[in-house]
Amino acid sequence: MIRDFLDIATALSDMNRTRVLLALRHGELCVCQIVELLCLAPSTTSKHLSILKRAELVDARKQARWMYYALPANPTPIVQQAIAWTFNALEQSSQTKDDDKLLADILKQNPADLCRRQSGKVNCYSPVPENATKQKEMP
Amino acid sequence: MIRDFLDIATALSDMNRTRVLLALRHGELCVCQIVELLCLAPSTTSKHLSILKRAELVDARKQARWMYYALPANPTPIVQQAIAWTFNALEQSSQTKDDDKLLADILKQNPADLCRRQSGKVNCYSPVPENATKQKEMP
DNA sequence: CCTATATTTCGTTATGTGGCGAATTGAGAA
DNA sequence: TTCTCAATTCGCCACATAACGAAATATAGG
């Protein structure tokens, strides 16, 4: 019970994970699309998704070689409330607006193309959102 | 905006901090009472309180030598929603029930006595709640 | 079966966080 | 002013976590 709540709060305490949740408002996404959105390595993205899944903030389904993530179809009241709170807090943020634009572009592309580019090390075709706080370290 | 949200989610992702929030349902508490409840060092407790304060999940007021913490009198809608979610999720938990009992005992005592005992290294007069997950490390 | 590929898991590294005790601060009390 | 003491800040340690690339794990297609 407490563990469930803390899992959710922990999952929501990272901006990349809240970005995924907000993106899923528009429907389910496959991992390569989320990789493209976050502009992170696939392994890192996968870790974030597993944390969201553990908190039951997303559903996951496998179809062929692709994993699709979506908002939970039957959330518990606590999860439902957490998602409502998150959307309420972040839906108007400039980060979300930027992501919505970027996502529209991503959805126009063939997911297979995205994956190909990602394995070719060109992780990030889009500029880092301007208000992203320390999105990526430059060593 | 996002920063505010992440501050709140981070503040809520630690059990000791949620315990403080739940305890404050019963009214404001001074630091020594919270130290007694959590059974942590005053410095650690103070850090937790500063994180709650930064997230605007608590108000702080100083009276004479004591600091009193309370639920926010005028929370923003997002903070209000976060607190409602937290109470909804945790109010029925056994941890909260245990803390409510313990708090009733603490409130019967003179806060000055609590502070005296705390400076005398006898931090914890009460047993650690039985379902506390890894409340304290033993080296 | 073998190959290609989408995703996850593993190992590593840098940074963040919770915990404590010691030192510091600040507001009565002597 | 000086002393006391509640609370905070500081310095340190152990452990958690976000990031990456490499290796492992499926699964579709040849």
What is this entry, summarized?
The first copy, chain A, has helices at residues 2-11, 15-23, 31-38, 42-54, 77-90, 94-108, 111-119, and strands spanning 29-30, 59-63, 66-70.
CATH superfamily of chain A: Winged helix-like DNA-binding domain superfamily/Winged helix DNA-binding domain
Largest sheet of chain A: 3 strands, antiparallel
Q: Which stretches of chain A are poorly predicted, pLDDT < 50 over at least 5 residues?
A: 126-139
Shape of chain A: globular
Main β-sheet, spatial strand arrangement of chain A? 1-3-2
Radius of gyration of chain A: 15 Å
Number of strands of chain A: 3
Count of discrete structural domains of chain A: 1
Structure notes:
Two copies of one chain form a homodimer. The first copy, chain A, has 139 residues and is mostly helical. Chain A has one domain: Arc Repressor Mutant, subunit A (Orthogonal Bundle), CATH 1.10.10. Helices cover 56% and strands 9% of the residues of chain A. Chain A contains seven helices and three strands, in the order H-H-E-H-H-E-E-H-H-H. Chain A has a three-stranded antiparallel beta sheet. The longest helix of chain A is centred in the C-terminal third of the chain and has 15 residues. Chains A and B meet through helix 1 and helix 5 of A and helix 1 and helix 5 of B. The structure holds a DNA duplex (30 and 30 nucleotides).
